[in-house]
Description:
Elements: E1 11-17, E2 20-25, E3 33-39, E4 46-51, E5 54-59, E6 77-83, E7 88-94, E8 97-102, E9 108-115, E10 119-123, E11 132-139, E12 143-147, E13 154-161, E14 165-169, E15 179-184, E16 188-192
Parallel strand pairs: 1-5, 1-7, 2-6, 2-8, 7-9, 8-10, 9-11, 10-12, 11-13, 12-14, 13-15, 14-16
Antiparallel strand pairs: 3-6, 4-5
Amino acid sequence: FVPAPDSSETTAVKLEFGAGKLILKPNAPEGLVAGSASYNVDGLGPEITTGGGEVRIKQEPYEFKLGGLPNVNQVENTWELSFGTQPVELEIRAGAFDGEFELGGMALENLNVFSGASSLEAHFSTPNLTSMSELHFTTGASSAKLYELANANFSLMKFEGGAGDYTLDFSGTLQRDATVEIDAALSNVKVVVPDGTPTTLRLESN
Length: 206
């Protein structure tokens, strides 16, 4: 549990997550961020630091004890975090993880996601509670499905993907003009734009 800031100023929230399952959703029962972490290997628990308008929730790199690595199929590591309605700039840095994100109903002024080989499904099922300057998503060889992106209410979206399978669905309520830049080499990219959404498309290839 991370309490809400005393003022209405934007808080920078930085999540640093290794391997496992990461679940994000709105409607925290109280505070800025609330949730739980479950794991079965000592050293995988999150460390929370606050100060200077920033909250960092970090998983320390784990140094396995002598005797060999555990069977990765037997390692459990799950974070389930809920966010309140205070304005935040959210940055996520994650390794090989499975992600389930429901980002609708949060107040995201910026969103930056940097991940390794991962599998992610993210939704903006309801509109962002504020306007977003930039949505920046960078990933390695992975699978990512991003839905209802118009509800994110961003001015600029940058998507950079390695070899992978990606779906970018721009359904939702478009409140203003926006620019989307997609750079995904050697990938299968599906872009969904609803009927009636004015769109200018430009393709470039090397």
